[in-house]
From TrEMBL:
UniProt KW keywords: ATP-binding, Nucleotide-binding
Organism lineage: Bacteria, Bacillati, Bacillota, Clostridia, Eubacteriales
Organism: Desulfotomaculum copahuensis
Any one GO molecular-function label of the UniProt entry: ATP hydrolysis activity
Superkingdom field: Bacteria
SUPFAM superfamilies: P-loop containing nucleoside triphosphate hydrolases
PANTHER family, alphabetized: ABC TRANSPORTER G FAMILY MEMBER 20 ISOFORM X1 (PTHR43038:SF3), ATP-BINDING CASSETTE, SUB-FAMILY H, MEMBER 1 (PTHR43038)
InterPro entries recorded: AAA+_ATPase (IPR003593), ABC_transporter-like_ATP-bd (IPR003439), P-loop_NTPase (IPR027417)
Pfam short name (any one): ABC_tran
All copies of domain ABC transporter, residue ranges: 1-230
Protein's recorded name: ABC transporter ATP-binding protein
Length: 245
């Protein structure tokens, strides 16, 4: 994906102020930034859900201004709340999302068999989602987002509230998907996860504060962790000023 001078204004508020970057297919791309920095607005424009005020870009090789519908059909979206039906089983949730994406019953059944193994949700296919732990729900939500074989996965804080073992397993699944050429756009507030991204964009007040590999960002800032780079940006180099706000 690539964007050029992408901008969005809400009245006089400049939510995204003309950002440009390029992300190769098959990358795990982390979009980081404090609350209100413009991440969701950027994602909405990339997914073809919101028209930019200025600038443009391509996602999956499609122009975000003119091919928004095709882009939407090739995206799998997973929200922080997982958006699963708790009173349906894993299998029923997968069938529900498969039907929404227009797959036939046979197609969904074939996809389910593949996804149970791939997403490590084998053995509890017929268990109600409401009775599953956070990690199982998270992997089920990933399977649902991936049921129609999208080429781009958009994951909005996908590991919030999930234990460390499940988080690690989840990131291993993402590594596998990226290795198969799926592009993954992820937002997270966990800097250990940000360091697992191939590319990271740090947003601040609608601007792109930094963009590159985690190593590049740390080297440029002369810091040994992405957390330090992030905190330095978010506090303008003065952590105590931010804390006392
Ligand atoms: N539809 C809208 N109308 C008016 N203002 C909006 C709208 N959507 C977002 N904003 C404003 O644009 C700015 C950027 O918001 P955005 O949701 O993109 O930030 P964010 O980085 O995703 O934040 P968070 O981490 O809290 O989700 C904020 O000041 C927000 O209040």
């Amino acid at each position: 994906m690539a964007v050029h001078n992408l901008a969005k204004n809400f009245g006089s508020l400049q939510a995204v102020r003309g950002i440009s970057f390029q992300v190769p297919a098959g990358s795990i791309f982390g979009l980081l930034g404090p609350n209100g920095s413009g991440k969701s607005t950027t994602i909405r424009m990339l997914c073809g859900l919101m028209r930019p005020s200025a600038g443009g870009g391509q996602v999956l090789g499609l122009d975000i201004l003119t091919r928004a519908e095709e882009i939407k059909n090739n995206i799998g979206y997973m929200s922080q709340k997982f958006s699963l039906y708790e009173d349906l089983t894993i299998a029923e949730n997968l069938h529900f999302f498969g039907n929404i994406y227009g797959l036939t019953g046979h197609q969904v059944t074939a996809r389910c068999a593949e996804l149970y193994t791939r997403m490590k949700i084998t053995g509890r296919e017929n268990q109600l989602v409401g009775t599953l732990s956070g990690g199982w729900k998270q992997r089920t939500a990933l399977a649902c987002a991936f049921i129609h074989q999208p080429r781009l996965l958009v994951l909005d804080e996908p590991t919030a509230g999930v234990d460390p073992v499940s988080r690690r397993l989840f990131w291993e699944l993402l590594d596998g998907l990226a290795a198969d050429g799926i592009t993954i756009l992820v937002t997270t507030h966990y800097m250990d996860e940000a360091e697992r991204c191939h590319l990271v964009a740090l947003m601040e007040d609608g601007n792109l504060h930094a963009f590159g590999t985690p190593r590049q960002l740390m080297a440029e800032a002369g810091m040994d962790s992405l957390e330090d780079v992030f905190i330095d940006m978010a506090t303008g180099g003065d952590v105590y000023r931010q804390e006392s706000r």
